[in-house]
Amino acid sequence: MKTDEILFGRRIRQNHALEHATITILSGYVPDLRVSARSSSRGFIIFGDMDLGQLRRALNEALYRLQAGESQLAIHPNCGTNLVVGFTMLTFGTLLGMTSSRARTRVASAALSSVAGLMAARPLGELVQKYVTTLPDLEGVHVTDIFRRKILGFTVVEVRTVQE
Length: 164
What we know:
It is a single chain. 54% of the residues lie in helices and 19% in strands. By secondary structure, the chain is of the alpha+beta class. The chain folds into two domains: 8-75 and 135-163, Threonyl-trna Synthetase, Chain A, domain 2 (Threonyl-tRNA Synthetase, Chain A, domain 2), CATH 3.30.980; 81-128. It has a four-stranded antiparallel sheet with strand order 1-2-4-3. The two termini are 19 Å apart.
């Protein structure tokens, strides 16, 4: 087992890539799309209502384009990975700034280090997506099911995938 598969298994990473590509393409069909999603080894869940025909079309296009080598579709600017990396960088920046021995420079150092951490968060988050949390190699991956349901009044659309 590879190191990157200890926390994020191959199927989760593949589904995460397909989720990102699908949302990117679906956003082109529905410019004011407001959804969030979570991936698992069985597929992914989209929180929000949408036309299932448009979703199916976006899924088919996303799968085709990822399988054709458009790996950049696996990286999404609004991914939760970017948030985690951002908060981590902010925290480390603040802690680094607080190590200053002089009280007067401690606040300024913490502020500057925090800002530097936040500025680095997005590019680092995209690198973490590329190498750790997504895998655009979808050879043999197929969508098996798409179904909508209501949970506590919220619409959830589940996409199931398999790899043959």
